[in-house]
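seq as requested:
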Amino acid sequence: MSSFSVDVPRIMVFRPTWEEFKNFPKYVAYMESQGAHKAGLAKVVPPPEWVPRRSGYDDLDALNITIPAPICQVVTGKQGLYQQINIQKKPLTVKQFSELASTERYQTPKHFDFEDLERKYWKNITYVAPIYGADVSGSITDVDQDSWNINRLGTILDFVNEDYGIQIDGVNTAYLYFGMWKTTFAWHTEDMDLYSINYLHFGAPKTWYVVPPEHGRKLEKVANQYFPASY
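struct tokens:
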């Protein structure tokens, strides 16, 4: 175990009531007042009253969504230093993607617990490149769901769309992402350093690695040192 240690903010978990949850900007302001932003990530567990999609997710055909440009994620490197190359593949429907993710080649391996699965991820990261359905414009949240609807969160970005007709894909409109075992979205900051809000509609749990904003420049310095051609 390394003797190196850094005092970092803890990642907070919030469990708002239904009334608290209804007002997105107000609740985000509350989270900030508690220092949640200092960690760079916070988890919000929605109240049971919130149902983003009343019809559920059992019928993938009903989603009627095509992933126009799935990417094959080829990872190279060793000993903790890796680079990812994305190779575009032919379009897939969500059902086809789900069936592919369930095949023996791509499915999540058997594991005892999260730590075991994490070890297998890093041990096998350069083998069997997964397919990622990223940056799919659209939403599967019910149109009449007014609370925490990513297409209209009640922030200033809504006015940019409504008043000026300016749509910025993935910023003031929703994006969908379809992942499988080992699909990875490499470390990055958002456009204009905005927050990113993500909701896991269905499927296996998702793992996040985060660097607190106060240490962001240090990460960039390390990345520049090891990957100078990318900077």
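Helices lie at 18-21, 24-33, 94-101, 114-123, 156-164, 216-226.
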